[in-house]
């Protein structure tokens, strides 16, 4: 299956947290969207691999993406090793997305910075004939997506563009609630983490509000692009209404 958009995230729940509203919007627009989680989050303080898998399935259903795959790479050890990068290359060549998304390279979690570098390298190598990969025993053709956009995790950056997610904000929050072991959940016992505190949920809501405000909307999600993006003013003026 060919995809329009493919999101690479280090841990299950990262995609929902950083761009769940955008994902729900793209799906609703009738485009084909996939998420590839690089690890199962087995180093997480709360929840187990099994409980996190179930939560991921529930969140995936809420967002309605066509494909959700886990690469089973080791949590806590993401880095642009050639064998890891080639696994990302395989997925890019398999799904041929027009646009891919990755974590921004400057972040608090080493796996996010590692995943960012892995995806950037994979995007380049996927387009080289001499980088050989195979799918079910058959050699894969070279393919390079048009664009790589970075999503925001803990650290903030000056965005290149912001997506209006006002109509999809509730869906984003529902997809996050599916991760009952990870985020604020008064019914759950166990150690607190950076993201399980009520304050973190409040922060996510406030941040979406701040980026929404920047574009004159209620809620927004920010993205960064290294490369310049063309703007078709004819389409944009229509969009403005
Ligand atoms: Zn993460």
Outline:
The protein has 241 residues and is of the alpha/beta class. The protein has helices at residues 14-28, 49-63, 82-95, 110-125, 169-177, 198-214, 233-240; strands at residues 5-9, 33-37, 67-70, 99-103, 134-135, 138-139, 147-151, 161-164, 220-224. The chain contains seven helices and nine strands.
Folded structure, characterized:
The strands form two sheets. The chain has a seven-stranded mixed sheet with strand order 3-2-1-4-7-9-8, sandwiched between helices. 43% of the residues are buried. It contains seven helices and nine strands; from the N terminus they run βαβαβαβαββββααβα. The mean pLDDT is 94. The protein has one domain: Rossmann fold (3-Layer(aba) Sandwich), CATH 3.40.50.10320. The two termini are 34 Å apart. With 241 residues, the chain is an alpha/beta fold. The structure holds zinc ion. Zinc ion binds next to helix 4.
The fraction of residues assigned to DSSP E strands is: 15-25%
Q: What's the number of helices?
A: 7
Mean pLDDT: 94
Class by alpha and beta content: alpha/beta
The CATH architecture: 3-Layer(aba) Sandwich
- What is the strand tally? 9
């Amino acid at each position: 299956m060919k995809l329009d958009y493919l999101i690479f995230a280090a841990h299950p729940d990262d995609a929902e947290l950083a761009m769940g509203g955008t994902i729900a919007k793209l799906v609703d627009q009738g485009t084909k969207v996939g998420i590839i989680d690089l690890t199962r989050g087995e180093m997480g303080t709360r929840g187990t691999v099994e409980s996190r898998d179930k939560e991921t399935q529930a969140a995936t259903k809420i967002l309605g993406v066509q494909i959700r795959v886990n690469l089973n790479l080791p949590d806590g050890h993401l880095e642009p090793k050639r064998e890891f990068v080639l696994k990302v290359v395989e997925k890019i060549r398999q799904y041929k997305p027009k646009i891919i998304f990755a974590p921004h390279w400057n972040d608090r979690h080493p796996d996010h910075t590692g995943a960012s570098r892995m995806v950037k390298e994979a995007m380049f190598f996927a387009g080289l004939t001499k980088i050989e990969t195979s799918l079910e025993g058959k050699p894969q053709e070279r393919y390079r997506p048009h664009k790589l956009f970075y999503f925001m995790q803990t650290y903030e950056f000056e965005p290149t563009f912001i997506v209006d997610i006002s109509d999809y904000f509730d869906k984003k929050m529902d997809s996050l609630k599916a991760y009952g072991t990870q985020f604020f959940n008064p019914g759950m016992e166990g150690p607190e983490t950076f993201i399980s505190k009520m304050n973190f949920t409040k922060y996510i809501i406030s941040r979406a509000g701040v980026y929404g405000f920047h574009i004159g909307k209620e809620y927004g999600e920010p993205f960064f692009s290294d490369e310049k993006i063309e703007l078709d003013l004819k389409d944009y003026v229509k969009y403005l209404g």
